[in-house]
Amino acid sequence: MFPATFEYHRAHSVKDALALLKRFGQDAKLLSGGHSLLPMMKLRLAQPAHLIDIGAVGELAQIAEEGGKVVIGAGVTHQQIADSALVRGKLQALAEAAAQIGDVQVRNRGTLGGSLAHADPAADYPAAVLALEGEVKLEGAQGTRTVKAQDFFVDLLTTAMNPDEILRQVSFSPIAVGTGCAYLKRPQPASGFALVGVAALVSLGRDGSCEKVRVGVTGLGSKAFRAAGVESALAGKKPEANAIAAAAAHAADGIDCLSDIHASADFRAELARVYTRRAIEKALERCAR
Q1: Is the overall model pTM greater than 0.70, yes or no?
Q2: Is 163 in a helix, a strand, or coil?
Q3: In 10 A of CB 282, how many CB atoms?
Q4: What is the pLDDT of residues 115-162, one digit of tens each?
Q5: Which of 177, 178, 174 has its CA nearest to residue 207?
């Protein structure tokens, strides 16, 4: 199908894009890589009267260290994140998530900000952003604000962003010594989206016990989430096989699991338990002692 008629506007700065958003209001949509928005437009699920292209806004396309944090602009592509030595070295789970998104064409056009703003329940990034405790910087007519990842994903295709805001960047604290992280998923064979994907971050204390545990899960419910039951069950425990398995058993606790032609709710719940255990084990292998 063809999308409904729209007017195209090319923004050259964040200020320019915000002015266009203010001018056209809810009749406008932001466009960057287009891999989420354009399919919806072709299906007439989205019919914006105005498209504001922010793909050429250079200030959104940087990866840098600032103030002790790794800061990734919303316009950075999946492939740039997967290839970044800085991200691979200090946020390995995020680089792994980026490397598993779609195919080569998608990874070279799709962007971090576009994926997070779309909030597909089977997208890869949200699990990693949650486990790594990322902070999302939003900018709108009222100024800038920062939203913790745990508060950013609200529901199916719904985030904490306001209609007049732009997702500017995401910042992370680099993983510390004694900490490891990993992202693993069971992909849907045709699309590459996660039937279930799990990102895990584990820090070991001096006594070898799990001092900090963070687990982000995608593909299981209507939105990505932190698996609080897993985290609390493993925190303070020695990372032995039985303890890891017992903690991973809580991966689907309290979640109304999705069910479709690709996987039943029960199968997804079991995938979540299995991939949570595997992701924790992989993160533990990477802990620098």
Answers
A1: yes
A2: coil
A3: 20
A4: 999 999 999 999 999 999 999 999 998 999 999 999 999 999 999 999
A5: 178
